[in-house]
Amino acid sequence: MTSATTEPRPDTGSTPAATGTPKASILRQPTAVWAIAFACAVSFMGIGLVDPILPAISHELGASPSQTMLLFTSYLFITGAAMFFTSWVSSRLGVKRTLLAGLVLVVAFAALAGASGSVDAIIGFRAGWGLGNALFISTALAAIVGAASGGSRQAIVLYEAALGVGLAVGPLVGGVLGSLSWRGPFFGTAALMAVALIAILVLLRQPKRSAGGAGGAAAPAPEKISILAGFRALRNPALRSLSLVALFYNFGFFVLLAYSPYPLEAAAQATGSAFGAHELGLVFFGWGLALAITSVLVAPALTRRFGLRPVLFTMLGGLTACLVLLGCLTGSLAGLVVIVVVSGLLLGVMNTALTEAVMEATDLPRNVASSTYSGVRFMGGAVAPAVAGPISEALGAGAPYWFGAGAIVVAMAMLGIAGRHLAHIGRPHESATEEAQDITAGDA
């Protein structure tokens, strides 16, 4: 995810460790921090929330798999497009107003999606949901760091934890509520985000006024960002190269995420097994949990030991193999479940390593670089569900996975071609806090 224009750098003042005072506990945070962290978790849940209910929506509303997978496309396309402008918006509205605007949109459009009577309406409302999500997640890290006690590093750990919880729990909640009704996950998200909206409105304070300012004026406003800053950033050859790698990688990622519920359901039916929203939710809970664990705990260790580019090539190769196996095993329920969950381990490392590479490859402002990168990569995710359904109908159930594997191979080729622009990446970060910020800047 991307951070707001006010995304902080590492603390430059004294810390508890430096002054000899006891280190603050990560759990002893202001209530506002927990409110933002809760909202972050719910926001990240929205990515995989609809996955278990896609077949149910198809059955209930008489929609084809191609139509229902557009719920991902509209959401991701608008999220990606908005990412190019979120830095500009938050530099003018400020962190709190941007957070609240995003939450209001998510609550409204999630509720409207749940009340819809056609798949086309849900697709449209998911687009509005994506706009709200882009505004919220682009600002959440800055808000947590600004409100937390114990320094930037502890705040960032909380943000990472919220991200991991959201990715893992989203499919599980979608499966539990979806087993009651396909409308349940939409209304559930709207309710949870409404709670978060009220909590942030009440608990999160505006920046304190500066004592040194004239007449007690507020602290200096963040520097205004140009509305075209995200597009101009693509002039940087390293950022452009890695963004294109992410574009094709995310195509394969979302073929796996958005299309897999249908082969899983078909394989279960072929064996006479009951495999509804609840079972799909459990499968993708395992996938999300694996992704969260390796993203936070495994990826940093691997990139320190082996370097960024070797890890990127290895993970891309592993994901290619997973997609090829999925294409070959569409008739095996056990095979599909195992490979989907295992792929989560690779995807977690890949997400973190690719984001680190983006942050190290350019000296552009971090918020601009991460927003631009996220905007491009979400476009790859938006295209995948839109084409996976038609490809499956025309060429067979395994064909979308083969196309996803081909896209990952293209990503590997582009990473190799971009080598001269990326020769400098992989150096140690300035500090552990900088490293944590880089990892979380584009993770989900």
From TrEMBL:
SUPFAM superfamilies: MFS general substrate transporter (SSF103473). Residues 1-18 have a biased composition (Polar residues). Gene3D superfamilies: MFS general substrate transporter like domains. Residues 1-22 are annotated as: Disordered. Residues 32-423 form the Major facilitator superfamily (MFS) profile domain. One of its GO terms (cellular component) is plasma membrane. It comes from the Bacteria. It is a multi-pass membrane protein. The chain crosses the membrane at residues 32-50, 70-88, 100-123, 129-149, 156-180, 186-204, 242-262, 282-303, 333-354, 401-419. GO terms for molecular function: transmembrane transporter activity. The keyword Membrane applies. It holds the Pfam family MFS_1. It is found in: Cell membrane. Its main location: membrane. Keywords: Membrane, Transmembrane, Transmembrane helix. This is MFS transporter. It comes from Leucobacter chromiiresistens. The lineage of its organism: Bacteria, Bacillati, Actinomycetota, Actinomycetes, Micrococcales.
